[in-house]
Amino acid sequence: MTPRTTLTPTALLFDMDGTLVDSTVVVERTWRRFARRHGLDAEEILATAHGRRTGETVARYAPPGTDAAAETARLVAEEVADVDGIVPVPGAAGLLSALPAGSWAVVTSAGRELTHRRMAAAGLPVPEVLVSADDVTEGKPSPEGYLAAAAALGVDPARTVVFEDAEAGLRAARASGATPVVVGGHDGPAAQGLARVRDLCEVTVRRTASGLLDVTLHRAPAPAA
């Protein structure tokens, strides 16, 4: 029997990259170019950049004397221009189409322009409530973005479910008081003890008579070795 977890939140909050949109090839191309420009270890950067704002990663790794603002602007421009290989995470389109308007939001470490570009490239709708890197003073793992999204939807953060795939985002979701669900294979400290799905094909949702969302996580068994 397929293991199931049922949740009854008021709203769903989604990370974008790795949760709704698979942008791995673009992200890797962008950060590898950055690493080559500055003689840095691309693998080290890629291991920590996911789920964090671009400027924060630049500030962490750029050599002394680098114009961090100019470098960040360059990286963002490269990402906005490059959508080759961007696809939706399996199940994302079907899940979002099943959600009532005003019952979900996107909270992302990408800027607003980049978010619109990637969601469009993946064929996904942008919700009424979008909290991007441009809208917060502190990025993930700060809970600021998730708290702002809940406030914009008019719901208690504790009555939301957050779908996330990265350590920084899961830490942010936990700190906001939401119920986090891990999407994909991330197994870092913040993922321990949480419900998880391989992708969004394993999530179904319906609106209950009381106005809540009935969210079921169908965790398919692992394939035989």
UniProtKB/TrEMBL annotation:
One of its GO terms (molecular function) is sugar-phosphatase activity. It comes from the Bacteria. Pfam families: Hydrolase. InterPro entries: HAD-like_sf, HAD-like_SPP, HAD-SF_hydro_IA, HAD_sf, PGP-like_dom2. Coiled coil: none annotated. Gene3D superfamilies: HAD superfamily/HAD-like (3.40.50.1000), Putative phosphatase, domain 2 (1.10.150.240). Transmembrane segments: none annotated. NCBIfam families: HAD-SF-IA-v3. This is Glycerol-3-phosphatase. It comes from Streptomyces fumanus.
